Amino acid sequence: MVWQKEEKITYSVFLDKHKQILVFFSLLFIVLSFRLSYIQIMQGNYYRAISEEQRMYNTHEKAPRGIIYAADGTMFVENTFTYVALFYPFEEEKVPSKKIIDELSDILGRDISAAVNKNMEYGRVVKLADNLSLEEMFKIQEKKLKLKGVAVSKDPKRVYNFSESSSHITGYTGEIRADELKSKSQEGYKLGDYIGRGGIEEAYDKYLQGTDGGWQLEINAKGYQTKAFQYIPTQIGNSVYITINPQLQQIAHAALKNSPTGKGAAVVIDVKSGAILAMVSAPDFDANLVGTEEFNVYLKDKKLPLFNRTMQALYAPGSIFKIITVAAALEVLSLDPNWTVYCDGKFELGDRVYSCWNKQGHGRVDLKKAVAQSCNVYMYNLALKLGIKNLDEFADKFHLGQITGIDLPNEKKGFVPTPEWKKAKVKMSWLQGDTVIFAIGQGALWVTPLQMASMMSAVANKGTFYTPFIVSEVMTPERQLLYKHTVETDDSIIMKDETWDILQDALFESVESGTSQRSKLRSIKVAGKTGTAQNPQGDDHAWFVSYAPFDDPEIALAVIVENGGGGGAIAVPVGRAIYEAYFDLPPQALPVYSHTPQTEQKANAKNKQAAKKPDNKRKPN
Amino acid sequence: MQEKNFIYRLALNIDWFLMLSLAVILTIGFLSIYSATYSQSGLKYVTVQGLALGIGFVLMLVLASFNYQHYEQMDRIVYVLSLLLLISVLILGMTVRGTKGWFNFGFASFQPVEIAKIMYILVLSAFLNKNAKDAKKFKFLVYAFLLLIGHLFLIMLQPDFSSTLSYFPVTLILLYIIGVEPFYLLCILIFGALSVGIPLISTFLKLQYNLERGSNIIVYIYSFITSGYAWLYCIAAVIIFILALWWILLKLRMRVPIIYPILLCACIILGCAASVPVEKSLKEYQRKRLVVFLNPKIDPRGSGYNIIQSKIAIGSGKIIGKGYQKGTQTQLGFLPEQHTDFIFSVIGEEGGWLVSQLTLLFYFLLIWRAMVIAKDSRDSYGSLVSIGIATMFSFYAFINIGMVMGMMPVTGMPLLLLSYGGSSMVSSMCAIGILSSVYMRRHTYYKTSVDMM
Fold this sequence. Notes:
The structure holds two protein chains of two kinds. Chain A is 39% helix and 20% strand. The C terminus of chain A is likely disordered. In chain A, the strands form seven sheets. In chain A, strands 2, 3, 4, 5, 10, 18 and 19 form a seven-stranded mixed sheet that branches. A five-stranded antiparallel sheet of chain A has the order 12-11-23-22-21. Chain A has a three-stranded antiparallel sheet with strand order 1-8-9. Chain A has three domains: 35 residues; 186 residues, Alpha-Beta Complex (Penicillin-binding protein 2a (Domain 2)); 364 residues, DD-peptidase/beta-lactamase superfamily (Beta-lactamase, 3-Layer(aba) Sandwich), CATH 3.40.710.10. Chain B is globular, with a radius of gyration of 24 Å. The longest helix of chain B is centred in the last third of the chain and has 34 residues. In chain B, a hairpin with a 2-residue loop joins strand 1 and strand 2. Chain B contains 19 helices and three strands. In chain B, 45% of the residues are buried. Chain B has a domain of 231 residues. Chain B is mainly α. Chain B has a three-stranded antiparallel sheet with strand order 1-2-3, covered by helices on one side. Chains A and B meet through helix 1 and helix 2 of A and helix 9, helix 15, helix 17 and helix 18 of B.
């Protein structure tokens, strides 16, 4: 009993309510205590991470990518610096205002708002414009007072020294896209990084990437720097050494570009290792222009300059395939090379007539002459003797329909049709007519120029395939070896020596007296084969595959000139130019030969129709 | 002799538990204010706060020695004095951030509303205690609310919304203690909740709707409520439900007077009606501020920013804290209002879970002592005053600490005894002085106490 004036009962009623209120207050504090424990213990790590993130700030300095050296030691790809305008958030403005963007657009004379909006991130450094010239940089510096928060800094930029001839093999770099980031963030890529796109830049991106640097700073809520922890210097990426011979590359490019259509591809391979000495695709593009307005021209161009024709375009091999047909015949049928066929210009099979490119016919031809003159009738006879199974097997042996395994991305593997495929695809069985045109490299047979060059180098090696490669080694900037190419061989074509000798002699004969005569050099013996690839979209493509010197092969090449018509007239001179450059020979005037390219082309055009007919006729069945 | 006698009696009778918790809280408060302000403004804030504490301490001793029972006799004078304080600040006061609530003395300023809160507790307790026998009458409630409205009206003229908040829990709890029918208090609560809650919830739904605009339960609720007269049907349904419930209870032979359901319904309707003027009187930013704690993301750059940063500060302290003066949120200025309303976040960040829980513990100890004093008081007036003060401390603490942890609206209520602020420090010390006064006289009997003091 404490209250002195009141009744006892009143006090006990008060005590009850007092207790309730005390419990109520206790509950309030228990709630606070639980909430505190939840935030600090259960969510502590989460909030600690946020608090660290918002106080730490790293200024970002992009590292230059590694340098790419050509085989002769010249810098194939190097770096320079451009200036970029960056916006640093400050107290009043956490994102660049419209006023700043407009002002900067005014100075630069181009609208930057779209690019800025793409990069906009609250309270972070925003890239306003890149690729600024020195002049533009000074203009921005002059108006610094108006452009509050804008600073100009250096950014490395790629320089492609042989961009005209080699942009397809170097590839280029571009800012990582959001969709790529998802799959690549685990590999350490982050927003704003530049990654290689296509060619060596893409294939060897891991080596070429430098280590970005910058200051690690502490900032306060207003965005001002309060402390600098450390500076991490940028580190240039690793040096990549490639096998390309820049001189050969440029000459091959010029020869292709100066060919009548200016479209096509050429590949030169070192037959003793598989090293790519030149790899040219025309029309070309300039990798230095990536990211600028001018680059859009390439994107819109119907000639597809961005397309690397050496390994991404598929062509019918045409008469080049006769090499395989002959090899199969020699090996499987033990064909006597002196066995002859009389070519009267056409070949009858059932109710179909398949013609030779030479309407007059080649007369009586043996194997050597058949290859040298590219006689179709001889091949038709061989085809019927061999059958599709043997031909398919030999196409496979010569690595058709398989990627060569070159160390560049997006290689196409081509296609070799089989009876099973035809059945599944068009619900029709394989006919002898299909076999016949298969033997001369037409039909649904697709190859890349790189495959042809690789095949040619295997022919020169008598069956040994070397996996083609473009990067020989990768070294750190301190010249420590990181990667060295190991020569990979594949002896998949095991044939009698005799077969090789006959085949090589026939190819030599083709240059000496046959369709490839225009590549005949005064001091170097060359072996080769022309081809005409039928092209349903337009004029036929001209092929030339070759290797030299004949006795001790050093290089093999494959040239295709799109829509060039007959191989002999159009593609062979390109090959010749390459040989002249490689063997350091003075150019000589081309001799004039009996047959003109027109005749071969026209004949083949007819042949194409003939080859198509059987299918058309039987379709109703 | 007299002086020595006073100190002797003070030391003998004062509540040392209360003093211990007060000392701990003040120490934590000063250390936190120092940590939060030193790097920016040096010793300025700590000095001012120390000065206020000095004045408060002297006032505490004076009020502790003054017999609290005189307040009961002088209740009219105290009430008139408090009204005069509030009126004079409206005339002579200085305007800070849109609120005319400060007396400016040049070297210092004072917020009279802080002391008026304490005076209100004294006056209300006196009125309730004197008329306790009429507690069941309606007239009693009306008078009590007239006392409240006198203060609220003058404070709203400043206007100072957050200072009025502590009046409601104090009034309701004291009315409950004195024996007002709890049902009436429930009705008042419902009325208040509806009149303030409806504008706030509609604001929140609107903001959330603007934020999401996706398929979300909130979007459905919002579009349902804003379509036509749906809200009218809702009210009608609730009223019909109440009446039906009453009828069923009647059928079950449970006699509930008809006045109960009618009062309840009237409160609901009046509450909804009152929400319209409340909505009009609250400015957009105020409404935003009050609901943003439900989801800080609806306004992350504005009112939500404070809550987000405060939660980051507290949470990032984890168990042992980042260390004194090492809190990055505090020292780098991410935490807003860190020395005033968000002082608890500083404690949470730098001291971690251990020191924050310790602070809570000692704060609760202080309130528990106030409740013990209420129980031990020699008369019911002392009990009422003590409970009023305990309620004030509890609600300030709950709303403030709840706010910094993102579970209460951002109201701008300081954490008494911890937050920087001279007026609230002085008035809090006065409240402690009054508590001590009640405690020191717990054993004094009326017969012998006639000529005391």
